[in-house]
Design a protein that fits this description.
123 residues, mainly alpha, AhpD-like, 2 domains, 7 helices
Length: 123
């Protein structure tokens, strides 16, 4: 007996699709393969409960996400994804590079540029 996907899961995957076409299938398959509730818990929290909240444009949220991931320096896959998502929401290449360079420092900016080159090449 299978159950229908929750509204929370559907909303999370719909927002993920807005950020990057095709991403929901890849991400959900990876998470579901790990644990049957992983997509609901992780993406539901991240995308439905937080990113989809009113009060801030998605473009702004993505720019903040890029800046934070670049500053962390420990999540290159997520940084590359969110750079592509930021581009998909209207952030420019220059905005990404300059914002990161100024606010996270030159070493982190250089690492972010490596991720940016990969993200830009995939478009």
């Amino acid at each position: 007996m299978s159950t229908a996907p929750s509204d929370r899961r559907v909303q999370a995957l719909a927002l993920l699709e807005r950020l990057e076409a095709g991403a929901p299938g890849r991400v959900a398959a990876n998470l579901d393969d790990f644990h049957s509730e992983a997509t609901e818990l992780l993406l539901g929290f991240a995308f439905t409960d937080v990113v989809a909240r009113d009060g801030m444009a998605l473009k702004t949220r993505e720019m903040l996400t890029v800046a934070m991931l670049a500053a962390m320096g420990t999540a290159p896959g997520q940084l590359e994804f969110h750079m592509r998502a930021a581009l998909n929401t209207g952030v420019t290449r220059g905005e990404i590079v300059l914002q990161v360079a100024v606010y996270v420092g030159v070493p982190a900016a250089m690492n972010a540029i490596t991720a940016a080159k990969s993200a830009f090449a995939s478009r």
